[in-house]
User: Fold this.
Amino acid sequence: MLILMRHGQSMWNAANLFTGWVDVPLTQKGIEEALDGGRRIAHLPIDEVHTSALIRAQMTAMLALSQHQSGKTPIFHYENSGDSSNSNEGKMAAWAQMNEQADTSQILPVYASWNLNERMYGDLQGLNKQETRDKFGDEQVKTWRRSYDVPPPNGESLELTAQRTLPYFSSSILPSIDAGKNVFVAAHGNSLRSIIMDLEGLSRREVLSLEVPTGVPIVYQRQEGNWARLSEF
Assistant:
């Protein structure tokens, strides 16, 4: 089973600002959305969690999991990049380890990766969306936001976003599902759009109308190599 969830409303969603990779937390409404989404999947088995490197996705994952019936403790796992243990990154990978004899039966592993981050919106990050429409026109901003292969200035298109999300999905998420694990992914509108496009075989035209609401779980089952979105779960 694969569970996808877009983060709850962020402070810049509420302020109508382009966010992209700017690391903005959730609003109170976003917190409530994450908790509500968590309650909807509280009964579903979850063996592994993946989030982006951005706080709004990580907050959403942790809040949702706080509602889960398993009562397992989510614990972040850090990649050992080969750095010396004198570096902060090396210390996180080396020092965040449990004793090898510790009981891990109530542990839920969590992996964070920038590959699941939102589209990088380049020069638009931090700008008001309506003011940007007033300046550049509705059609231009719509093209930057919704087209498949036209990026905003110095930013990423959905196509470029897919070039990092899909390899990560194939190398880090799919093997766990193939091994029989149930995976929960908390990420962003566009990183999830690129994954859903691939799972459902959507065309470049079809994906333009795909909306991924905040805080709403989307659940898939994989059967004989095909993905089916569940209407009830």
Q: What stands out?
A: The longest helix spans residues 158-178. Residues 2-229 form a domain with the Rossmann fold fold (CATH 3.40.50.1240). The chain has one domain: 2-229.
